[in-house]
């Protein structure tokens, strides 16, 4: 049995590169960017009007002029026009090019317009106000988005602005999620007294969807020849296999021996943690195999603690570690790393973790009442209120 730290490092040493693909930029939200995005022109590309109003030559205002004859209108999207007489003005719209020979914009709210004359109604204006200067946000060739950024709506706008209709992103791994067990029935079925509905597999599907990873699912009964036959094919067809159940010491927990018979290299089996101690991890040349214990909390926390970091490193995404302050004393005597369910709240700018009472690793419903796990190390048994520990958040 190895430590949580050893297990995680073993997994991180086995990350897998899946290559790069080019996709329409509008479909790239949540994906990992695999190219630097640079400005193809200055941003903004011209001196841009940032308020509806009038544009003037500030020198005229400075010498005391307050009323200006309107020469014309500069609309957004229209070619730049010029102010022919410095004592006049031009009406301008937000987003328009600043007219030539003007250098200051006064918003409509601060002028009165009558009979083609605009009169400024305030006493003070500033030279160059309400103008977004050319190149202020970035010069042509400037780096706007760096490689390995997770694309959000903010990046989509930049991609559109620079004309990146197609963008290079990390390819996603091909994943199969497998549940095992004769006690499991479909979601739409009515279970008998000795049965339960399948849930872990759908939890895993949803956890992977948070990473924008599509997955397929399968269910295999506790029949060793059937397990072996189907898993043999999955190992050849998929980059990653995620299993829920059949990795412990039960009489029908066939997966570890099936993996061995199919040539899966066991990198570890059992981790000094609660929940999820029977966790199995192994690999072939082309496939990573995560064997999560079948209890719902075990499956859930192992996916967050191990698969997520594996994925982040595989696609080049830097994972940020979060911590929280324990809100009350906790005692845990086994010499195991304890992933304790907690509810998170923010107090005075700090995250505070309040333990949630559950009924063990089979208590699926308790996940609803929590929002994270706090990782309590195995080198102590008493954890005091106010101490800070790493958290793994899922909300």
Fill in the keyword field for this structure.
Molybdopterin biosynthesis moeA protein, domain 3, six-stranded mixed β-sheet, Molybdenum Cofactor Biosythetic Enzyme, Chain A, 4 domains, Molybdopterin biosynthesis moea protein, domain 2, 395 residues
Tell me what the structure shows.
The structure is a single chain. With 395 residues, the protein is of the alpha/beta class. The chain folds into four domains: 159 residues, 3-Layer(aba) Sandwich (Molybdenum Cofactor Biosythetic Enzyme, Chain A); 59 residues, Molybdopterin biosynthesis moea protein, domain 2; 85 residues, Beta Complex (Molybdopterin biosynthesis moeA protein, domain 3); 72 residues, Beta-clip (Beta Barrel), CATH 2.40.340.10. The protein contains eight helices and 28 strands. The strands form eight sheets. It has a six-stranded mixed beta sheet. A six-stranded mixed beta sheet has the order 16-13-17-21-20-18, with helices on both faces. A five-stranded mixed beta barrel has the order 22-25-24-26-28. A hairpin with a 2-residue loop joins strand 24 and strand 25. Helix 5 crosses helix 6. The protein starts with a helix and ends with a strand.
Protein topology:
Layout: H1 4-12, E1 20-24, E2 37-38, E3 48-49, E4 53-56, H2 58-62, E5 67-74, E6 88-92, E7 104-107, E8 111-114, E9 117-120, E10 131-132, E11 143-145, H3 153-161, E12 166-170, E13 175-180, E14 184-185, E15 196-197, H4 200-209, E16 215-220, H5 224-237, E17 240-244, H6 255-261, E18 265-269, E19 273-274, E20 280-283, E21 288-292, H7 296-315, E22 322-326, E23 330-331, E24 337-347, E25 350-355, H8 366-369, E26 372-376, E27 382-383, E28 388-393
Parallel strand pairs: 5-6, 13-16, 13-17, 14-15, 17-21, 19-24, 22-25
Antiparallel strand pairs: 1-12, 2-11, 3-10, 4-6, 4-7, 5-9, 8-9, 18-20, 20-21, 22-28, 23-27, 24-25, 24-26, 26-28
């Amino acid at each position: 049995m190895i430590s949580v730290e050893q297990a995680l490092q073993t997994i991180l040493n086995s990350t897998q590169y899946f290559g790069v693909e080019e996709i329409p930029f509008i479909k790239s939200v949540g994906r990992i960017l695999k190219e630097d995005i640079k400005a193809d022109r200055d941003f903004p590309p011209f001196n841009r009007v940032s308020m509806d109003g009038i544009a003037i030559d500030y020198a005229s205002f400075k010498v005391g002029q307050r009323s200006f004859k309107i020469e014309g209108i500069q609309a957004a999207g229209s070619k730049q026009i010029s102010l022919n007489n410095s004592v006049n003005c031009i009406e301008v719209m937000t987003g328009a090019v600043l007219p030539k020979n003007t250098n200051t914009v006064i918003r409509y709210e601060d002028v009165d317009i009558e009979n083609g004359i605009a009169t400024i109604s305030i006493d003070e204006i500033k030279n160059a106000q309400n103008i977004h200067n050319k190149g202020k946000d970035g010069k042509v060739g400037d780096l706007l988005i760096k490689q390995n950024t997770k694309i959000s709506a903010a990046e989509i706008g930049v991609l559109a602005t620079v004309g990146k209709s197609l963008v290079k992103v990390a390819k996603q791994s091909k994943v199969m999620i497998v549940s095992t067990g004769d006690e499991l029935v479909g979601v739409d079925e009515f279970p008998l007294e000795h049965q339960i509905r399948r849930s872990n597999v759908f939890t895993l599907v949803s956890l992977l969807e948070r990473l924008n990873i599509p997955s397929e699912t399968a269910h295999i009964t506790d029949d060793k020849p059937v397990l072996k036959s189907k898993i043999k094919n999955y190992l050849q067809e998929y980059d990653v296999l995620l299993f829920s159940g059949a990795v412990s010491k039960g009489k029908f927990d066939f997966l570890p021996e099936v993996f061995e018979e199919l040539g899966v290299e066991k990198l570890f089996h059992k981790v000094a943690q609660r929940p999820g101690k029977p966790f199995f991890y192994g690999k072939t040349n082309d496939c990573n195999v995560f064997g999560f214990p079948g209890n719902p909390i075990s499956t859930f926390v192992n996916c967050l603690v191990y698969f997520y970091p594996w994925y982040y490193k595989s696609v080049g995404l830097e994972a940020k570690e979060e911590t929280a302050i324990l809100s009350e004393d906790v005692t845990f005597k086994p010499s195991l790393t304890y992933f304790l369910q907690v509810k998170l709240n923010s107090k005075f700018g700090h995250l505070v973790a309040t333990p949630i009472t559950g009924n063990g690793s089979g208590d699926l419903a308790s996940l609803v009442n929590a929002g994270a796990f706090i990782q309590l190390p195995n080198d102590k048994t008493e954890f005091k209120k106010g101490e800070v520990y790493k958290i793994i958040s899922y909300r």
